[in-house]
Amino acid sequence: MQALILAGGQGTRLRPLTLTTPKPALPLAGRPFLTFMLDWLAGHGVDEAILSCGFLAEEVAAVLGDRHGTVRLRYVTEPEPLGTAGPLRLALDQDGLEEQVLVVNGDVLTDIDLGAQLDFHRRAGALATLALVAVEDTSAYGLVPTAPDGEVEGFLEKVDAGASADPAPTDRVNAGAYVLERSVAELVPPGRAVSFEREIFPSLVGKGLFGHLDEGYWIDIGTPERYLEATRDLLTGAVKSSLPPRDATGSLVHPGCRTEGAEVGPLSVLGESCVVEPRARVARSALHRRVTVGARAAVDGAVLADGVSVGEGAHVEPGAVLGKGATVAPQARVEAGARIEPGTEVRLADRRPAADAAPVRVAESRRDG
Ligand code: GTP
Hints:
This protein has helices spanning 17-20, 33-42, 57-64, 86-95, 114-124, 158-163, 182-187, 196-204, 224-236, and strands spanning 2-6, 27-28, 31-32, 48-53, 67-68, 71-77, 100-105, 108-110, 128-134, 172-181, 209-213, 218-220, 252-253, 263-264, 269-270, 275-276, 281-283, 286-287, 292-293, 298-300, 303-304, 309-310, 315-316, 321-322, 327-328, 333-334, 339-340, 344-348, 363-367. By secondary structure, the protein is α/β, with parallel strands linked by helices. It has two domains: 2-236, Spore Coat Polysaccharide Biosynthesis Protein SpsA, Chain A (Alpha-Beta Complex), CATH 3.90.550.10; 252-367, Hexapeptide repeat proteins (UDP N-Acetylglucosamine Acyltransferase, domain 1), CATH 2.160.10.10. It binds guanosine-5'-triphosphate. Guanosine-5'-triphosphate (GTP) binds next to loops.
């Protein structure tokens, strides 16, 4: 079975992480994110994945190579962004496609039963079958109302749904995993950006477009909040994965880390070669590789990209995201929800001596060089 993975978006909502690393290659629980998707696809019989890349395409290829376990990886790189459907047409025109193809958004962590979706698709004689999941807050997603037999009755992209004051007509949303007949790829106009959600699926309503509800785990990791939620769910085992065992705090500390005398956990990830100095605390956070946290510093509910350095006694508050190589001066505070660009320094706004510095009110950020 062939799968096309849409992996060419800029991931703007995950900046500053995605300024230097494309979303598919971002570490999640210490592994390139896309490897979780590839495990899931392999578990459903996929043996070839076409990676549709654009933004930072070379990075994706450098991290994933040409094989993941039993799955052969093939890359189709767009000269310019082709949206969600354009890449399928490009793949068809470049190397051809099998009669049925799975198309998946490259930013979902899920254990949806693709086998059941495929069976449904074949039984219904569908042209396209979308995986649907029910969510509590539908505002960020495309809504897909269906008839009792699963036929899609409408395709309400998130903009339309949000613009209406009426209650949502359904809680079923597009999970970004499609079984498509090859003829759907032939319907996609070549050579320009085309959206499945806005153009192709709405045009297929009433012509063989079906939805298949799945009750499995599903989350798109496209925002920092959901990235952390996915991290937590992997650590607690709420979603199936082949991660190594976690420690007593539910945390995962990768090889080459040094944490003696520090408090790490609960539910944190330390990627390779991180250092957390004595009496520092790291809780509910994701540290990528080679991150250092100085003595008595505290990091809670934050994401720290490769090479971030947090100075002694500094505080990183919940929801903060620090880009690659950012530094936090001793005693400084990174406020809740802050986004710190790669390579910048967060300094103490007020340069009082450390002993006199608490409570520190604000930190300012500056880019070196
Ligand atoms: P945001 O900028 O934060 O919205 O993220 P995004 O760029 O990833 O967009 P979105 O989350 O809507 O995209 C859903 C999926 O489609 C992701 O896996 C993207 O990588 C992928 N995608 C979006 N646009 C393109 C594109 O032009 N080309 C390719 N190949 N993939 C795309």
